[in-house]
Amino acid sequence: MGITEDLHELRDRGIAAVDATNDLVGLDAVRVEFLGKKGSLTTILRGLGGLSPEERPAVGKVSNEVRQALESAFQERHAELAAAAMAERIGAEAVDVTLPGRARPVGSRHLIEQISAQVVEIFLGLGYRIAEGPEVELDYYNFTALNQPPDHPARSLQDTFYVRDLSGERADIDGESDVLLRTHTSPVQVRVMESQKPPIYVLAPGKVYRRDVADPSHLPQFTQIEGLVVDEGITFGDLKGTLDHVCKAIFGPDRRTRFRPHFFPFTEPSAEVDVSCGICGGEGCRFCKGSGWLEILGCGMVDPNVFGYVGIDPERYSGFAFGMGVERIAALKYNIPDLRMLLEGDMRFLRQF
Ligand code: PHE
């Protein structure tokens, strides 16, 4: 068989091999096999040296044609395979926008925080400022300066957690110490009046502690919001108007309030405030135990004796104070049957708010 036939046979084999490849790596291997420096075509062309000068031009022409035919077959196949590879990649990377998204649960503020923030917002709108005091408090601020000197019978009304310094001199003494967990936010009143001159319009939200066993209506730690106003000419009418406005802002405009006489050592006169029952509208039902009213806060006019402790002239100034329990407001607003649910962290409960 002559060289020309060899070349044609090589061309046909090469084209068949190119057509048979189905990826770029395979195609490159075929190219090296047929057209590379050590490839079949080069090997054949080395044999040209043995040809006579007359034969050479014709064989040279055929070999060029064969090279071109192989090269264009490679180029064509390369374009096809590259396009196919690109199409496959685009397909694999495509985002299916019709797939359902992954839902991420969104957190929220705890109900007690939400209500505190709501009440704070109402009072900021009335021009009050926020005040703070320590949760670990001195007996003086929690009791004495609130007109409950040592041995005052009203002290027994509140069961107190006392804080003892176990390394100190009195480590062996059980019971009362000068340091305690505040039983109400009223000590903040004293701290504010001690450090600021009237006019005073402050709101003090915070945690308080009592030695109660947790049950549906008691928690050993809960949240109060204290309010204090001291200015010239403040009357019980101002107190009533303020608290009526606040109750309507918290519970809704159709709710009514009533003030019942009560006793607190640090206010005189004192009152408890009820809001009309939201379930029966005041008719009387199981929720309000038949009375039509729900108790929500304590309040009164600042006792002149308290002004005495902080050096405010009771002839010139008068004031009112109030304290509300946030857990109780939450329970009344959302019909929560057991205050302990507010502390248990059960997501089925918390997610409702
Ligand atoms: N400190 C009182 C309590 O905890 C509430 C109160 C505050 C009453 C301010 C009158 C004035 O029960």
Description:
- With 353 residues, this protein is an alpha+beta fold.
- The protein is built from twelve helices and nine strands.
- A seven-stranded mixed sheet has the order 1-4-5-9-8-7-6, with helices on both faces. Strands 2-3 form a two-stranded antiparallel sheet.
- Strand 6 (257-264) and strand 7 (267-276) form a beta hairpin.
- It is rod-shaped.
- The model has no long low-confidence stretch (mean pLDDT 90).
Roughly what percent helix?
Answer: 40-55%
Which series of helices and strands comes N to C?
Answer: HHHHHEEHEHEEHEEEHEHHH
Write down the overall geometry. rod-shaped
Bound molecules: phenylalanine
The fraction of residues in strands falls at: 15-25%
Tally of DSSP helical segments: 12
Neighbour order of strands in the largest sheet: 1-4-5-9-8-7-6
Seen as an oligomer or otherwise, the chain set is single chain
The major β-sheet equals: 7 strands, mixed
Instruction: Provide the structure class.
Output: alpha+beta
Average of pLDDT: 90
Report the count of strand segments.
9
